[in-house]
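Structure (tokenized):
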């Protein structure tokens, strides 16, 4: 499979390294790597091409600059609040991010170098191995915008950190740093920020030089735990999109654009 498939993905940069390791960098640093329409679509489909790419054994994904990905681009989100037709497309893509990452046979490693929110956090935590800078900060953030937690949270957080912690952090939308995320089991490991990328490469090389059949089938079996939660996840996506038709979402998005606290009725 030639590398011309890289060109399909706006907002992503690619680098092939030894041992079949493919580095992907979310490359919108001026927007803190927030996902716009093109990037959201790309992040929902790229895992299909990776699965078909014989040259790739392991993927590492990180963000350029100070952020991993600061969620959805607010101008893009603003464009679909109250628009049922656009929301159907967004819901389908959000589901494909999760399901295509689960189905991808190649191991995916995230190197969470900075803030990760919303859609960006879905990529960070749906990775098979999540490595996080100790000083980085994450939040699901949906309730701040006046919509239910969707994307990846319902299918994953209760498995990773337990229902009590999942409810607390998803309902409050409090930020969590790498140390706390590691402590509660939300990420695989937290390391000092200046060691993060080297550690990601070390783990990627270890996995890429291991038995690919054994590693991939282990991933497939472990992911059955997540797929059992598919009905709850599909409901959460629908609830999220329903929220985007509400007055709370209009207020939440306006407040974020205007950099003020929302006034939910």
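Design, position by position:
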């Amino acid at each position: 499979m030639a590398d011309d498939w890289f060109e399909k993905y706006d907002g992503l940069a690619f680098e092939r390294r030894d041992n079949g390791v493919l580095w992907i960098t979310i490359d919108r640093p001026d927007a803190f790597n927030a996902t716009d329409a093109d990037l959201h679509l790309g992040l929902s489909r790229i895992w299909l091409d990776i699965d078909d790419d014989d040259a790739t054994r392991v993927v590492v994904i990180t963000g350029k600059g100070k952020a991993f990905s600061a969620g959805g681009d607010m101008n893009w989100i603003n464009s679909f609040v109250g628009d049922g037709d656009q929301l159907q497309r967004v819901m389908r893509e959000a589901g494909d991010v999760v399901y295509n990452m689960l189905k991808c046979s190649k191991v995916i490693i995230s190197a969470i170098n900075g803030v990760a929110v919303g859609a960006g956090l879905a990529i960070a935590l749906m990775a098979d191995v999540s490595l996080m800078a100790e000083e980085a900060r994450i939040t699901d953030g949906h309730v701040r915008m006046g919509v239910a937690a969707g994307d990846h949270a319902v299918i994953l957080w209760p498995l990773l950190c337990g229902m009590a912690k999942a409810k607390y952090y998803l309902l409050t939308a409090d930020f969590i740093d790498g140390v706390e995320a590691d402590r509660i089991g939300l990420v695989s490991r937290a390391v000092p920020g200046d060691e993060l990328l080297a550690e990601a490469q070390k783990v990627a090389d270890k996995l890429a030089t291991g038995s690919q059949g054994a590693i991939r089938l282990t991933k497939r079996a472990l992911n059955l735990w997540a797929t059992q939660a598919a009905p709850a996840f599909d409901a959460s996506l629908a609830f999220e999109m329903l929220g985007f038709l509400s007055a709370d979402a209009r207020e939440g998005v306006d407040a974020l654009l205007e950099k003020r606290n929302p006034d939910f009725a």
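Reviewer-requested clarification: Strands lie at 12-17, 21-26, 58-63, 67-70, 107-112, 115-117, 129-133, 137-139, 176-177, 189-191. The longest strand covers residues 12-17.
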